[in-house]
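Chapter review: from sequence to fold.
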Amino acid sequence: MPTVKLYDTTLRDGSQGEGISYSVMDKIRIAGELDMLGVHYIEGGWPGSNPKDMEFFLKMAKKPLKVSRLAAFSMTRRPNTSASQDTNLKALIKSQAKIITIVGKTWNMHVTDVLKTSLDENINMIKDTISFLAGKGLEVFYDAEHFFDAFNANKEYSVKCLLAAQESGAKAICLCDTNGGTLTSKVIEVIKEVRPKINVSLGIHCHNDADLAVANSIAAVEAGADVVQGTINGYGERCGNADLIPIIGNLKLKMGIDCISDDKLKELTKVSHFVSEVSNMKLRADQPYTGYSAFAHKGGMHINAVMKNPKAYEHTDPVLVGNHRRILVSELGGKTGILLRAKDLELDLSKEDPNTKKILSLVQKLEHEGYHFEAAEASFELLMKKALKKYKKFFEFEGFRVVVEKRSDKKITSEAIIKLKVKGIKEHTAAEGDGPVNALDNALRKALKEFYPTLSKMRLSDFKVRVLDEKAGTAARVRVLIQSQDEAETWSTIGVHENIIEASWKALVDSVEYKLLKDIKAQSRGGV
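The token string follows.
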């Protein structure tokens, strides 16, 4: 089986993505996950550019990786200086990294207009830098920046830069589509012409400015590259880098290329989600292979077919990458979606059962009003159980009032007052909050906590509001989605109303009721 080495640059290129900032501990945690996944090389950062990256390398030197090899990044020596006196190169040696990746110019325009030096001096910079580092016993990779643009502008000179790196001791040469605008056909053409001239490993590093980074990376492998650079979830500057998540999936499952083991492939979804959390970036629901919606089915015809044979509408088995199939309940899904959800919930329901038609009609009616159950599976579970009379109320609602006050000192306060009857006992509770919904949440839990202590382990983790009819202005109906979580699970609930407070209340009550229902289910199975 052919092999391809994976080179991850999430900790450097990925950190340049807008909105991403890693602490040293963040970088250490991500490096640990990449090591567990079996990535061959992890580029940890540029130790000469900032103290944080240097601290990372020095800490990692005391905590070696099990599988992956750590690489430090920098650039060729500055023009008209010696390699031994270059501060960036000194920092590389201080970092204690055993693999060094050096980026150098290959585009004549960049040499003359950006570096403001001669073409010959740029060649000397490449040679001196790599020779100096290789002479220190370090393994050097050369990143040929802007190579595809360089090749188009001056083929002879761009290849001369590669050969200078190879002759000076580079163990791998990586061709970079730094501007991210090269078409796939051109990538193939260039690599096929360059590959015979290179007798060391040949890599590919693509940016995604034309939405071609993954395709170009795969095409490069087909044309002869044996190292692929990229970032987890495609994080990076501008439009991002080549996304290693689908690249790994495609190499393994579509091309039969051994880049990580089959067992580690099952960790792909976990790693994708972990990096998104540490990066504080919401993972795309439609992220290939690992997204929440990657194997979600909504249309009735699709659902019906995929349950007969998953290959009908799935390009691969989600289990192979650690993901799972989801059947969405909506007005488009028909009875099949409802029956499959009922089966998941261990509810006795058949296609001929009048309750199935009743639930479908209810779903269609509510979706017409603005509900969206595919994004609120907890609310749908409650709806089904209530329709089937398999639900017992945890409390009876009597009323609430919310007061928002703005004072002369410009401070805004919110207070909610709630009246409930819980297990025959009347509860009249008030609580303040940062806003009206937070105040309602606090008051509701305050009223219930003595009766249901496990609510203390639950918290709201996300709150979304969408106006459903913008033309109606301030009288428009709104949809509120609330995401909640406890120590074991995350769930979503929904509420729709012309009044945003009422819509929020509906979603909030569903969230609390789902938590209580879930706890009862766990207790009946011998859980907490």
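Two observations follow directly from the output. The chain has 18 helices and 16 strands. Residues 296-362 form one domain.
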